[in-house]
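We close this part of the discussion by returning to an individual protein. The sequence in question and its structure tokens are set out directly beneath this paragraph:
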Amino acid sequence: MKIHILKVNRSDGKKLVVQAIHDGKKQNIETFETNEKTKAKHLKKKLEAMDPNKLISQNITFDVALHDFKKFILNNELITEETRLLNVGYITNHIQPYIDETCLDQYNLGIFKETYIPRLLKSKRIQVKFDHNGQYTRKRTDKVIGKKTVKETVGQFKSFIRFCQDRDWYIDPKILNFKFP
């Protein structure tokens, strides 16, 4: 990863732009006035020490990542089919609906603790009814999910984060350290 300080002509005069280049992707990090060169140099040193995947957005959406994760689970022959379907159900019913961010790199431990966990604790159970034709319908009931389901869902979320790390997709790894009090 390379960090450059460039002089750029803008409509409101010349500016200094701190730009990061990684794997052919360029991203402007911050813009400074021309008399703020020391601030730009300080930011450059700070950015050079950072992880390039965290610095430059990979634009991997949660929809794509969760879809790939579900395919990975369904193709995993090491676990039984019932467990695979149950794990995909946790993702579909209790993880995917409660994520508001679009890209993986926007998601962090603070959002996980302050937004996702309270929503998960209020999540309603899903009732699946099968008819004689092999079709099924899903319906949310009025009952809240139990502690075991909450722990299993958080475990699946952590598995999803490890799945993302295996593919070099950046998502905050501090979420893996989360434990219920």
Observations:
- Residues 67 and 92 are 10 Å apart (CA to CA).
- The chain has a mean pLDDT of 87.
- The two ends are 39 Å apart (CA to CA).
- The chain has six helices and five strands.
